[in-house]
## 1
Amino acid sequence: MPNPGEPGTIEVRFVLNGRDVTVVADPAERLLDVLRYRLALPGTKEGCGEGECGACTVHLDGLPVNACLVPIHQVRGRTVKTVESIDPASLGPLLEGGATQCGACTPGVVMTACWVREHPELLDRFDTRELMAGNLCRCTGYDGIIESVEAACRRDGGSCARGGGGGRVGRGGEDAS
Ligand code: FES
Ligand code: FES
């Protein structure tokens, strides 16, 4: 990891899974790599590396984004949540409903599903399949994913956040400072 003040690097502070973190990095370094290789959060997966598959989905200020497309300088002062912030207990509907096979897509699916569950008003304008369209899966044929996300929304009907109606967000992130 570069040292503070090293030429070509910047210091980036942001909130990760509820905790303040600071990293020193090339400003163009991908958020995906910072999470996985600097902050020891390997739950966020790399699939295509070019914004097509959604395996790397995280929440940035509450919106799902592809971490492979986000340079770390854009995260300054913002809030990031990764799949490590999700309570495993919240994954029941996905595991029961045939939404997972190899699991490569699952962290990204979980993050998008969590966003949908936190914003039920989206379902007034879009159907679940449209909302999940940014998460590609090679294995399931999608029906299991869509039905499981809908089951999760019906079952929990609320927030993924700890104490937010679904009792969802678990441990915090790593403090890199
Ligand atoms: Fe980021 Fe595929 S790895 S969208
Ligand atoms: Fe294999 Fe989705 S379960 S890619």
Note: The CA atoms of residues 13 and 128 lie 34 Å apart.
## 2
Amino acid sequence: PMPTLAVVGATGAVGAVMCDLLSSRRNVWGEIRVVASARSAGRKVQCRGEELTVQALRPEVFDGVDVAMFDVPDEISAEWAPVAVSRGAVAVDNSGAFRMDRDVPLVVPEINPEQVRNRPKGIIANANCTTLAMIVAVAPLHREYGLRELVLASYQAVSGAGQVGVDTLHDQLAKIAGDRVLGSRPGNVRQAVGDDLGPFPAPLALNVVPWAGSLKEAGWSSEELKVRNESRKILGLPDLKVSATCVRVPVVTGHSVAVHAVFGTEVDAEGAREALRNAPGVILVDDPAAGEFPMPIDAVGTDPSWVGRLRRSMDDPRALDLFVTGDNLRKGAALNTAQIAELLAAELASR
Ligand code: 2RA
């Protein structure tokens, strides 16, 4: 029999993309159960051409489930992933609750697929969307040259903050449309947008906001620490130097990262391009003369990390500069989770 899958958080921004993906990827699942909070129970969701009824999150919903995916906030995952495991499922968690737990592997199938089998808690974690977009492109360069340091700035889309982030940006754009004075005087965008900033600390329309997540020690944001800690864990480089500045931009979907990567050996741009051309999950889009760069408007709705603007540093023969864009809801969330779940389905099938 084909394994049974539960999708927890099926009605959220990532859950909706997950249902799309499950409808378009090679089908490895028997029954699919869609699960959400009691508030969403009874709603209908389209998946694999079937209309599925959303079930409320409760322990019994995991009975008979082989793999349970969680696309829910940290505290819901922290409570419910162990419940799913206790009912016999393997949990694949897209929240931040377990990523840095020593007994939970942090898996990116293009990079460390073997880690799925190393799951003493029955839980496998999916990385943060910003880490994922970048790491798929950085890993092949690490294999080639030996990574020592990452200095990066992100350009993160509003859907990283969920559907409420998308609604907030579109509401703000509607409020400012047509007023050609906005953006030319201090404060006038703030006035036009009003007090409702949604999940963001400042207006996103006509602006960039150098902040994502919550305040942590010494002025770092939670998002910046995630990129550092998760990159180290995924690459198996506990001492990797990472300096990240995470920035929110008025883009609906598609996180981008400008990366300065320092390696242990000298690099050459053509060799790096060749490594990226051969890397799984990467598409090289690097023809500035033709106006071809990785950009969210092109990467949205696609699977790979788009990489371009690749240059060898002018001042350090061991460093590369590059720009990466990936769909934060797909590779950054639902797709990576689906790929991990498919590795588990293959493992179950081989038993
Ligand atoms: C964001 N990385 O973009 C977060 C979501 N997980 O807000």
Note: The chain has two domains: 5-126+333-349, 130-163+199-328.
